[in-house]
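# step 3/5: fold
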Amino acid sequence: MRSRLVARDAKAWTGGAFLSLKIGEVIEASTGQFMAQCYELHQPAPFGSLVTTREGEVDIYGVVSAAVTSSLEPGRRPIARGAEEVDEGAVYQSSPQLAKLLRTDFDAVVVGHRRDDRLHHYLPPRPARIHAFVYVCDAEEVAAFTQSLDFLSILVNVQWQADELIAALLRQAAAAHQDPRRFLVGAGKELALLLAGETNRLNTILRRLRE
């Protein structure tokens, strides 16, 4: 059965913009980040992708920074079940209850918000609401949000895998722009200012952008 997550023609209206691919909902939130539980097991939003959720009339934008699949019961690990199976899919076919015993969550770093139809590349006044839906932004919304690179000042200070996260976001954002190379050159210049004196970090990110 085709996953509803890949039905990209199914769109939802939120905050004055069409956003495709409803992927989950917020289960934990603070001003600077939120965690979402996916509707489909093993189908988190890709690392570095731009996602959005809601707080009242405000659209909150985040960059996916990590994902994890774990047991629904805290402290209880899944056990190996595939010794007699030919592939991983057969494990789930022979034990269909697994889909109800596991969950996939992902974290997102908040990088901006939209209010009164204006984009702001800084933290929103309040965190996302619990159970607010989370959408993966389509190419048009990614291009619109990344017209300004002010959000990079937030990401360079992320405590975990900041450089990998920045590179992943910029690679995906470049694909949404009409001139990807021009976008990446501009991003490189912005990073050079933000990471002045941190040559190793800057070079690491730039190498990731060329790969």
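# step 4/5: annotate
Residues 162-176 form the longest helix (15 residues).
# step 5/5: archive (pending)
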